[in-house]
Amino acid sequence: MGSKATIEVIWPGGATGSAEVGQDWLPAAAAAGLAIPTGCLTGSCGACEIEVNGRVVRACIATVPRARSGRLQVELASDPHW
């Protein structure tokens, strides 16, 4: 079996690391030392929204995608209700 593909991730605050393509976002962030806020953990509430290369995803139900550039820029979404 071949090794899993990894991609460079630039986390909020500028920290850089890597994550496996297809890995769930929450454990990938935790491995990088970033705690993404969560609520329901089913994708319903939106507390875990992050922006990945400008696209909003819910980290509790999304996985690390491939990117043509080989790099993903992650930002925490800001919701004043959470």
Quickly list its features.
82 residues, mainly beta, globular
Return the string of H and E elements. EEHEEE
Describe the strand arrangement of the main beta sheet, using strand numbers. 2-1-5-3-4
Which spans of ≥5 residues are poorly predicted at pLDDT below 50? none
C-alpha end-to-end distance: 43 Å
Largest sheet: 5 strands, mixed
Q: Which percent band covers the strand fraction? A: 25-35%
List the helices and strands and how they pair.
Blueprint: E1 6-10, E2 16-20, H1 25-31, E3 49-52, E4 55-58, E5 71-76
Parallel strand pairs: 1-5
Antiparallel strand pairs: 1-2, 3-4, 3-5
Describe this structure in words.
The protein has a five-stranded mixed β-sheet with strand order 2-1-5-3-4, with no helix packed on it. It has 82 residues and is mostly beta strands. A hairpin with a 2-residue loop joins strand 3 and strand 4. 20% of the residues are buried. The model has no long low-confidence stretch (mean pLDDT 92). The termini are far apart. The chain is built from one helix and five strands.
